[in-house]
Hints:
The protein is of the alpha+beta class and 491 residues long. The protein has two domains: 3-248, Aminohydrolase, N-terminal nucleophile (Ntn) domain (Glutamine Phosphoribosylpyrophosphate, subunit 1, domain 1); 270-458, Rossmann fold, CATH 3.40.50.2020. Helices cover 34% and strands 24% of the residues. It has 18 helices and 22 strands. The strands form five sheets. It has a seven-stranded antiparallel beta sheet. Strands 5-6-7-8-12-13 form a six-stranded antiparallel beta sheet. Helix 5 packs across helix 6, helix 9 (272-290) packs across helix 10 and helix 9 packs antiparallel against helix 16 (440-448). It is globular and about 75 Å long.
Amino acid sequence: MCGIAGIYSNKPVAAELYDSLIHLQHRGQDAAGIFTYKNRMHKSKGSGLVKDIFTDKKIAGLKGNIGIAHNRYPTHGGFGHGEIQPFWTSVPYGIALAHNGNLTNYTELAKIVTSSESRYLNTQSDTEVLLHLFADLLHNKQQPTDDEEFFGNLCSAVEKIFDNVHGAYSVVSLIIGKGLVAFRDPNGIRPLVKGVRTNKEGKKDRIIASENTMFYPLGFEPEGSVLPGEIIYITQEGVVFNKRLEKQTFNPCIFEYVYFARPDATLNDVSVYRSRLRMGQNLAEKWKQKFPDKIPDIIIPAPSTANTSALSMANTLGVRYSEGLYKNPFIGRTFIMPGQKARKKSVRYKLTPQRTEIEGKKVMIVDDSIVRGNTSREIVRMLKDFGATEVYFAVACPPVISPCFYGVDMPTRKELIANNKSVDEIKKYLKVDQLIYQDIDSLSEAVMRKGDHHIDQPCMACFDKKYITNEMNIQKINELEEMRIKDRNGK
Ligand code: SF4
C-alpha cells in the first residue's frame, strides 16, 4: 500500500504536499518523496516517517505551484533509497510519476522496457517500469501544438497502458512545461479521489489523492473519485481535461474499508467509518443467530482499526463497549512491520490490558482481520492472564485465504492461517471459547448498502480467490509469490 497526492495551486504547493503526506502516513511508513516544478524539477526524498524526512529547509527548496508526493509501503521491489517514489525521467519533457498499486505483469513489462525500448532500469520497482512505458508512449507522439492536442497524446498513451499493464494502479504524474496528470486502472482497484478549492480571486486549486483525509484541513471540497479507466489532465494554467478511456467493471479493494483507509475517509463515494459500523452490525446479527445464549459481558476492540465495528457490534448486542486494551500510539501498526520476530515482540509493547475491564468477565474481542494469527493468539493469552472467564473472538472480515497481488503486502499462502486451517482449527490455535468471522456477502453488503456509489462488486480476492484481472491463474500466483519472497529477502 502507498499514499499518493498531486496538487495544482495558485500558490506554492510544497507545504501542502507535506501536509497531504502527513494525512496519508497510515498508508505507508517506509519512505516518502515530494517533487515540485518551477523552472526545473525540485525533488526531496528520504526513508522513515514524513515528519522526520522533510525539514523546513527541504520544504523551502521545493519551489513551484504544482507537484506530486508519495508515501511508501513496499509491495514490489526492495527497501533501498533508490526505490523511493516519485520516479523521474528527463525524456521526453521531464516526467515524474508516483503510483499506488502493484503491476502483476512486471516481468514481461520490464523486458519490453529494457529490450525493445532500450531503456535502463535502475531498480526492481514496478513504478519505474510504468514511468518508462508512459514516457516512451508520449515520446513517440508528434509534438503537440496546444493543450488539447497534448491531452489527445496523453489519452492515447494511457489507453495503451490500459491495454498492456495488468494489475492495480492509481497514478499521479508531473510533466515539465505541461502540468499534472492522474489516471486509475480500468477496474479502479486502488482508490483515487479529487477535490477543489476556490481562492479569494475566484481561481481554482485542485488536488488528487489516495484518500480525502487532507481535504478538510487544507480547505479542499471533495469532488468524488477519479473513475476507473479515467484520465485527468490539469494544465499549467489550471485548465482541466478529463476522459473515461475504458469502462470495465468497477471493483475497488474491499480491504481498504476493512483495514487500510483512515476511518474519516470517503472512498468511491462510500464512507469508511459508516461501512465499518455496518460491518459491526452485520457481525452482531450473525452472532445472535449462531450463539444466542453466549452474550458477552463486555466488548473490547483490538485497537484501533476495529474500534468502529466493535462499537456498533456492542450497540447491536446491547453490551458495554470498553477500551480494555490500551494501545501505545508510538509503536507502528504490526501489519506494516516487516519480519515475524519484530511483530511477535511488538504485541505486548503495543497493547496493555486493563485488569478492571477484564477480570471475571466474559470478554468479546473484535478485530478487523486475522492474517497470520500470532497477534490474535497473543491478545487472547493476555486477556486470560488478566482474568477473563471466557474469551470470544469476532472478526469484521471473512478468513483471509489468499495473498493480495494488487498492492497490499500480505503474507504468502503458507503463512496465512486461514489458508492452512479450518475455522475450528483456528479457534483451537487461538485458544478462544468461540470464534466468528464475517460472511463474504455481509462484508460486501456493509460496504455497498449506502452511498451514491457506482461499485459493481468490490475486489475480495484475498477472501474468495476470485482475482479481478484475467492473468491471475495459479502459475501467475506462484510466480508473484516467489518474487515477493525474493524482494523481502533482499535478493
Ligand atoms: Fe484488496 Fe484483497 Fe483485492 Fe488485494 S486481494 S485488492 S487486499 S480485496
